[in-house]
Amino acid sequence: DSVFAHVVRAPEDPILGVTVAYNKDPSPVKLNLGVGAYRTEEGKPVVLNVVRQAEQQLVNDRSRVKEYLPIVGLAEFNKLSAKLILGADSPAIQENRVTTVQCLSGTGSLRVGGEFLARHYHQRTIYIPLPTWGNHPKVFTLAGLSVNTYRYYDPTTRGMNFQGLLEDLGSAPSGAIVLLHACAHNPTGVDPTIQQWEQIRQLMRSKGLLPFFDSAYQGFASGSLDADAQSVRMFAADGGECLIAQSYAKNMGLYGERVGALSIMVLDNVGKGKGGGWLKDQFFDSHSHMECCCLVTIKVCKTADVASRVESQLKLVIRPMYSNPPIHGASIVATILKDRNLYDEWTIELKAMADRIISMRQKLFDALHVRGTPGDWSHIVKQIGMFTFTGLNSEQVAFMTREYHVYMTSDGRISMAGLSSRTVPHLADAIYAAVT
Ligand code: PMP
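A: This is the predicted complex of the input protein with 4'-deoxy-4'-aminopyridoxal-5'-phosphate.
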């Protein structure tokens, strides 16, 4: 008998398992709206033109080699990524208060950030929205944090439960970490307004809660890279501390290249900024037993660069996990971000993807309306980003899969990016049948 004979079968991943089931279905009308991956009107995956051009440049450059990257990844990519999310004129970048490391897409960035916090931050509790992307609780639990939730979504209005959010963050222990979706909340498609973000910011800063932004959809929600970064920039602008996980899976279509970045923004100097200063204190405490006995060294410690010490610790998280990140995807991103023409072309392609998704919302809404589908479906056009949180329950979803070969997660989330003008009528038929 195998020494592994006792191993029990694990359930399929609730999101990626949808594709496994879809692939097994021989029906010609089957429709995969499970995983969040962009498809064209023809239902095909795309490689962006700018990505093809960048790859061509990389291939033509014979001086490029396949050596290992440093533990923290491609330096140029890291700098450009911080600029992309924080803005080119970010004071934090100019003051060297941001440390950025290249990670394995958004997921890897969240994991590295989580492990760093579990080792070096005084509060090991992270609050995640209810509901949230299904991988969040697993990533942070395995990183060594303890996971709590805050109310976010109101199923009765299919909108935000803002009162619940304020109450739950208001009663969170001081210093707790709070996971925030920078834009295009997954799975609900419900984002705070700018005024609500400002209230969240004030509440969090007044309680010393530490923001950890998950930015998986910059530019993909509204079509504008700046508009989709606004929440993050509001927190960055107050001078306080935060963590940001970025993914290039969706906005550059680099899903399988696994390219992302973790940025940690810190307070460097005593009294600077208004948002906490925990990292300085933390590092001062844990690394300065010797220094405490000697005034001269204390002074050195206080003026030393916190961001670079944070980076040195991030390297200790990364090195035993995967040693260093892959070179190809980060080189593509850096090539695009540093070249004015490629960058401009990217923003156009990105906006086209966002616009197609937004147009699918209207088409689906209209198709349900035409069929006289009972219920209020206006949330389909109101929600933001890749997904619509339909409000369909798990029995209705199971019915749609069984009878109509429509595949989606059991919470009723559908990927609007997987829909096309051709498939909207079939989906509308399936939803109509499920609710009548
Ligand atoms: N966060 C959220 C909210 C997501 O929706 C996703 C992708 N589904 C990710 C993070 C990470 O994805 P990736 O690791 O492919 O960048």
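The longest strand covers residues 98-104. The pocket of 4'-deoxy-4'-aminopyridoxal-5'-phosphate is lined by residues 36, 105-107, 133, 181, 186, 214, 216, 247, 249, 260 (CB under 6 Å).
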